[in-house]
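Onboarding guide, step 5: your first structure request.
Type a short instruction followed by the sequence, for example:

Predict the 3D structure of this protein.
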Amino acid sequence: MPSTGQFQMPSRFRLSSPRLRAAAVVTAALLAPPLAAAPAHAGTFPGEAVVSGAIPALGNIDLAPDGSGAVTYLLAEGDGTHAYVSRLVDGRWFSPERVDGGQPGGSSQPVVSTGDGGRVQVAWVNGGNIYTATRANGGAAWAQQTVWGGGGASDPHIDLSVNRKGYLVFAAPGAGGHDIRIAYSKDAAPWALVDAPLDANPANDAGVGGGRARVGASADGVAVVAWGEAGQVIARRVMGTRPSTVFANANDGLQVEGLGVGGADQPEVGVQDDDSFTGIVFRAVFTINGAERSRVVYRRLRGSRFDGPAAVDATPFATGQSSVRPHISNGGIGQGIVLGSSDTTNLSYAMLMRADLLAGPIQQVDSVAQSSGPTYAVPATATPLKMIVAWQYTGADGATDVRGRFYNGRDFEAETVLSQPGLGPTDAVRGLDAAGDDNGDLAIAYVQGNSIAVATIDQPPGRFAPAPSARKWERTDRPALAWTRSREGWGLAYKVSVDGAEVATTPRLSYKLKSSLAQGEHSWQITAVDRRGQTAQTRVGTVRVDTVAPTASVRVSGARRPGATLKLALRAVDAAPAPAPGVRTARTSGVASAIVDWGDKSRREPIKRGAQHTYARAGRYTVLVTVLDAAGNRTVTRTPLTLVTPKPRRGRGRRGDARVTRR
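The system replies with structure tokens like these:
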């Protein structure tokens, strides 16, 4: 089918992390709009200029599950048009990085996909060849590669899955004019071009114009590719470098309002974590009374067969309208948005997908006013409870801005202007795209004036708490405080407060106090602050300080001789130092235990107030009594003992005590 003649944005599908599976059991909760500080509310922040210059086109924007990301675009310079990337790190946009360095002439059609840890993979066209640039992680250098050097190639599209497997598709010269080619990369290794084309029929012309290919990579490492071929939309799975032998034709059995399809093109792909369910949305063309009318149609690819079609619009044939610009965005469990727009009213319609990409209800997105020009609307999914549709609004006077409606899991919230007037008029013809991450953040990129601007729906820091401590009492007056991580992908610092006063700011999950704390109990709390000033707090924690050892006095009574029973009396107290006038006495940890060692190699034994012991032999002994408080402070008393054996008493001789009387 012929192209519409309008700029078609490269579609973006980012496969969400398997962590999103847990969201299937989350009840939908209404999320309040801009600038709230509590974890349940997101802030809406108008577009900021990422780069300025002569910008022929935006490529696309992509966010990794961890919140890192990148946007790619073209910049016109003295020697031609070149491909650039700006990376998103900790919520901040880095300076532009040229990725087509050393290449003559102009580059075009840049596309980007990102992965956790700062991985970025970019592809573009230069001189009819397909080139890529890869950063394996945030600290790595760019590695450039020629994937196709035979000329005549176009329309690259790239997707990187959460398991570090990437797929790149494009059109290249082939037997029928053009073929669909695919390359595979794992763990940022060089791209391996699959030898055979993917076409259903090598004799057909495939993958050019409205038939350009799209790819989505699932969490299990399987890719689903969809493209236009001979007026049909074809889908095929690829496992690494091994294409499946099965083709699925989205035209088969396709009818809308009882009319059979005449042709189809412009496919977009949405793959969930499990590639068994894949969403394909495309433009289907029908002939009515000799005139062509197009409808945006969604079909779910279930295994190797397509489910029944769903028209993604409210433009029945009787209205005289057509729907155009198919888009899809979904998360790891399949929930997301399919989008189509009227070519007459410029209104956009969103079909909400349920789990496993099941088609759901359809509703109009534009809520304030009808645009006087095409809107180029795009969807983005962060989680099932956090999605957005963004579009360009054109007023009756021709003025333009970028708007959006946030979807909170139940409803689309109020329409919001996302662009800042000070940057000039927006120009979605040169590009408009959106993406989301697993933290619930959303980014909307567009061309405005001579800039690439990015607006954000920024989730505030997530809930967190004081970390459990094995100690009820600290034996140092400068204890270390620790807490769990607050979920935030776009830059975070932690403010530490003790007894209501802020004492430090740190990026770490623990902090050792620099100033001494007084004896006793103290309160502390951590405030997580993101780069836009949004906050979340822990509950108030308690830290108890006891650095003073207990006092003890020991008295031993009884005869100091072997075989005699000695009695030990103990008096132990864990008292706090005397407070300053007017200050309450600090609480202490209290005496926890006392142990006596009699010094004769007998077994040590715990005691409370006293103990008894009998020595078997005479000699010199030291009685050690160790007293510990609950904080672990200890006091040891030493009591020396000398035991002697009593000497025998003198007798009166052998005659005994009796006196002998002589007669």
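Each response can be followed by summary notes, for example: The radius of gyration is 38 Å.
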